[in-house]
Every structure is written in structure tokens, then in C-alpha cells.
Specification:
By secondary structure, the protein is an alpha/beta fold. The protein is built from 14 helices and 13 strands. The strands form three sheets. The chain has a seven-stranded mixed beta sheet, with helices on both faces. A four-stranded antiparallel beta sheet has the order 9-10-13-12.
Amino acid sequence: MIDKLSKYGPSIFSTMTGLALQHGALNLAQGFPDFPTDPKLITCVDLAMKDGYNQYSRPMGAVNLHKQIETLVFNNYGREVNGDEELTVYPGASFAIYLAMQALISAGDEVIIFEPAYECYAPAIEIVGGKVIPLQLESPNFDIDWHEVRKAFSSKTKMIVINNPHNPTAKVWSKEDLDALEELVSGTNCFILSDEVYEFINYTPTGHISIHSRPEMIERSIVVSSFGKSLHVTGWRIGYCIAPQNVTDLMRKVNQFSVFCTNHSIQMGVASYLENHFDPQILNSDYKAKRDFVKAGLKDSNWEVLDCEGTYFMMLDYSSISDLPSIEFTRKLVFEKGIATIPCSPFYSNGYDPKIARICFAKKEETLQKAIDILCKI
């Protein structure tokens, strides 16, 4: 038996969450909320089940949800999406990313990713025979070095993966970054995979600048998003992808012969909720308040709180606390201090290990206050 992913071990997220459960530690590691799902959303899904939406949906996604996504994209970015040709609902954004690699990447194709990188990118590339070209973003600012990007870009570059807002750094791409990206790929055969699952959690004055709002890039871009993140239901596994028709057709083929479709009743419930209850501005302001609460609480601690421009993650520099490698340090936090975080080093492939731990602040205020109390004693 050949293990195509032999170099990859267990997910750092499941590892740290497992340790948190085992030791009864406060879990700020994995990116999921600990507050209740909106009862209105639960009611919407419950009604969809009672209304009989319990069989297969269209493989591309339920009509009602397509309409709501098309409206959401138009209202926020001014893009008119042809749902039948460009939009597909998938069981999670990670699966959509995997399908994009299956559709577009062949053996020997190079794919540029920016590290620290979300852990699903590299395996999805390598399992189809692609070659990962990692470019390092260094703390504390995690700025993109476009000189290095241009050096890495070649005729073999089939795709560039961007994550905006970025997990784990909480960095947001600027207009200047997107301008540089557009200039780089113009006139080439290179695709952009834009992972925008945190699109509605952006604290910058300009707000989220989506690939959807860049007309010159739309025909070469695959944009992925997630209702698991924006509706606080990560376990429901519901995301979507908007891509050119030729790419969409290829992705749908793989989807058709694997999972076929996404949970029908959840699709219908989400569609109803989007139409009647969802407000991205409230989502953003709620998370901004949580970010500010944690930042203020750690102001006089030994931790250096790095800039958090988006997402519900925050990077904490512990270099004034310990010289331990981040994996060892974060495990020690679980064992000795009763709090679980995520080490930064597993997000890099080259062994780079800044003294940084990532926390998730998608938590109740009570949980966040407990975390602040623990962290301030370290």
C-alpha cells in the first residue's frame, strides 16, 4: 500500500483539542465557537426537515440557497453570479479546495502557498501530484514579499493559493497586494484559489476586498467560502465555491462521483436564515468586540498581542516568557496552566518556529475572561 500523504501526521487542531479534553483544559485551540447557535437558524433547519427536504438536493446545490448566495455576493461585492454555471454548494470549504486541486492540478504543476498556511492546502496539492512552493511570511507583520513571489513564479506555476483574511496570522490582504497579484498573473495560465471563509470578519477600515470585486481576475479565480464560519456551525460542513464555468464543471464531476450533494435540509434552512435573519455587519461587530476584549485584557501581560486585522484568531508572541519551541510550549500550557492554544510552527513546512501561539476568541465572554485570567498569570 502506498501512502501518498506519509509525511503528514495528525492534525495539530485535533491533537491540541484532544489534549484539552484529556486534561480538562480551556480550549482556545481549534476554531469553533462555544456559544449557542442562533435559535432562529435551528428553527429554519428544523422547519426544512419537517417540510420534507430530507432527500438528495441537486448536486450543485439547492435552488433556494443558490439564490441567497447570488444575492449575498452581489450585495457585498457587486458581482452578478450565474449560479447554474459558476456556483456550487459543497460539504465544507475544505472539500471545495480539495476538488479545485483535483480539477486543475496535474503531476508536476507548481502551486504557490503562503506560510504559515492552513493545513489542508499542501496535502490537497500533493495528493494529485502537484508541487507545493511555500513562501514564508515572517512575524510580526507577516507581510508578503512580492520580490520573492516573482522569483518563485514560473511557467510551471498553475495556481496561487491566497487566504484572506488569513488563518492563522489574522492578516488582511491590502488593495496593493491584490494589485500586485493581478499584475503577476495577467496574461498567464495561472489560477487563483482565494480562500475567503472569514470574509465577514474583517476589522480594517477598508473592509474585505474580495476577488469577487476584481473583474480582471474573476475568469481565473476560484473563490471559496463557508457558512460554517459565518453562521457559527462548523460541524454542519456547508460551504460553497464560485468559479469559471469550465472549472466548475470539472469540480462538479468529482463531487458527483464522491459525495454527490450537500445535506438538503441544512441547505434549505441556511437559505431561509440568509433571507430573513443574517446580517454580516452584526457578525463583524460582535467579533470585533471579542477581539478588543481579549486585547485589552492582555495589555499588561507578558504576551505580545500581534495585530489582528480579521478572522477570530489572535497571534500571541511568548518570546519574553519562554525560549521553548512552540509545540513544546503549547503542550506545557495544557499540562501546567490548563489552557489549550495552537503552536505556530506546524503552519510552516521548513521548520521555522517563531515563538508564537494562536488563540481562537470565538468564545463566550465568560470563557474569554477565564482565558485572560490564566494568560495574565504566565
